[in-house]
Amino acid sequence: MRINNQKKLMKNLLLSSFLVLATLANEAQTVAVVDFMKVPGNGQDAYLAVEKQWKSLHQNRIQSGAILGWELYYVRNSGTSSPYNFVTVTIYPNFAKTEASISADDFKKAFGNNSDELMKKTTAARNLIYSETYQLQVGILSNTPDKYIVVNSMHTDNLDKYLNMEKVGYMPMHEEAKKSGKLNSWGIWTRWPNEDNSVQAVAVDGYTNFSDINNMDYNDILGKVMADKKPSEVYDMLDQVNKTDAIRTIVKSEIWDLLDATTSKM
């Protein structure tokens, strides 16, 4: 895996993710467009160099109000047969904003007379496999960046019941996990349009330390949550948790490493 510059890049991200999330807190209609990229093993350095150039355009779009943020991730455990190994996420204030294309003025401001050359390098560096659009439904924010996120893709036959299960059954435990420092952030994003009906939503858990991903004592967390709640609230929470397997199926789980990101509007 040729991403030796990851540690250097992370030093520049100490504020970026927090600033984006702080903006999201005030945006009830926040939407993310997720682009899934396939980059050959011997071409990762070239691809990262290209994305570094594109970052200037994304930063300009933040300043103009076109987007809220942009992030670049590496997908762990992705091999030669994996359909994608890098992901970019562009965050918009609402669904309507996703329709606005990048203008010629945007290209000129970011790249001057080098836009044609950059487009050629971009095409050569990666294949855009597909794009998906997600809307934030509920989340727990953080004042520090997520260095790692676990993305759980969900299938459900009843989206409303699934969202209620997450809010009532699991959100209190995620809030407690964040208090303990084991979890950095959490969010539920719904997928739309849902052309193949395979995945309706993703649950995204954010972490600062990689070791925390598989080091959660849920019995301890549940005990602390129940101690602070009324009996009726505990009953409702446990009732929703017990319905988990009947309401949703985890289609796949992935770990993404944050490599780079824009900062919020200044």
Verbal overview:
- By secondary structure, the protein is of the alpha+beta class.
- It folds into 2 domains: 6-134, Alpha-Beta Plaits (2-Layer Sandwich), CATH 3.30.70; 138-254, 2-Layer Sandwich (Alpha-Beta Plaits).
- The chain has helices spanning 6-11, 16-24, 44-64, 104-111, 115-125, 159-179, 218-227, 231-242, 244-247, and strands spanning 31-38, 69-75, 86-92, 127-140, 148-156, 185-191, 201-207, 248-261.
- Strands 1-3-2-8-5-7-6-4 form an 8-stranded antiparallel barrel, surrounded by 4 helices.
- It is elongated.
- Mean pLDDT is 89; it is low at 7-27.
How much helicity do the residues have? 25-40%
Order of helices and strands: HHEHEEHHEEHEEHHHE
Strand elements, count: 8
Q: Stretches where pLDDT falls below 50 for ≥5 residues? A: 7-27
Indicate the CATH class of the largest domain: Alpha Beta
How many structural domains are formed by the residues? 2
